[in-house]
Amino acid sequence: MHAKDFSVSLTADRFPLVRDIGANHTEGTYTHHDRVLDFDVFLFVTKGRMQVIEEGTEYFVGEMEHLFLKKGGHHWGLPLTLPGTTWYWVHFNSVVDERVSYSDYCPMPELDYYFPDQYQYRFAMPKHGTSAFHLTLPNRLQRLLEDYGKQKDNGMTLISLQVYQLFLELRQAELSRIAKKTAGKTDTVAGRVMEYLTKHMEEDFSSKQLSDFVNMNYSYLSATFKKLTGQSIIEAHTKLRMNRAIHLMRSTPLNVSEISERLGYRNPFYFSRVFKKVFGEPPSTYMSHFYKP
């Protein structure tokens, strides 16, 4: 089976629960255990090189490289791990709410206000690799290991939260690395579209103006944006306008009709219907949640 079927995914609404953390060093040639586990594994090599086989795919994890091993996958090794290899490991359970239908797309940074489905997405961790961020991991993992051995209230929860933060930063480092490599390629389309939409969030949407701004055919833009972000251009534009509405509710004395007019909605009742569709309640009710002077 191909390794991509064994990527480890986390969700935005549940943090991984750490089972245990440890560190190992081998003086002689080492062979990884042959096993099938009921939890996920994070390995990080600080010195030497470890060999692991997962479901027939062989990995060599070098210095300052990580590897995630998937729960339920068969992994083992040959006597190919170098003498003197040192590594950290974290065993954890990825907690998924089976009642939730998770999206495979993270909300875009420009759409960072709370929506009803804001946390209902999953994201795959980079299976194997390294980055500049990995240079910080030896010290962080050592501190985690030291904290793991201490008795404190809510100790395991605090450790799990720290591991979750570390995983999120590791993933962000990988996304940044990929973005630098692909600068100027197809995935920058989403950024250009969001740049235009952000500048024009207080106006009705114009597909022609967007096409002229990006200098691309709108049909191509629309299909590419949907593929990259999981939502349509119109959906993104609407959410930006609703985000702007919330900002105006928080920071100005404008009423619903005035906010509607400010955002280019000629009919405040239509604005209210759109707002309720996005947030699940009308703007007048939403405004009542804020503390205002």
What's the gist of this structure?
The chain has 293 residues and is an alpha+beta fold. Helix content is 39%, strand content 18%.
Q: Secondary structure elements and their pairing?
A:
Blueprint: E1 9-11, E2 17-25, E3 35-36, E4 40-47, E5 50-54, E6 57-61, E7 65-69, E8 74-76, E9 86-93, E10 122-124, E11 128-129, H1 137-148, H2 155-181, H3 188-199, H4 207-214, H5 218-229, H6 233-251, H7 256-262, H8 268-279, H9 283-287
Antiparallel strand pairs: 1-10, 2-9, 3-8, 4-7, 4-9, 5-6, 5-8, 7-11
Characterize the structure shown:
There is one protein chain. Helix content is 39%, strand content 18%. It has nine helices and eleven strands. The chain has helices spanning 137-148, 155-181, 188-199, 207-214, 218-229, 233-251, 256-262, 268-279, 283-287, and strands spanning 9-11, 17-25, 35-36, 40-47, 50-54, 57-61, 65-69, 74-76, 86-93, 122-124, 128-129. Strand 5 and strand 6 (57-61) form a beta hairpin. The longest helix is centred in the middle third of the chain and has 27 residues, at 155-181. The protein starts with 8 loop residues before the first strand and ends in a 6-residue tail after the last helix. InterPro entries: Homeodomain-like_sf, HTH-like, HTH_AraC, HTH_AraC-typ_CS, Tscrpt_reg_AraC-type_HTH.
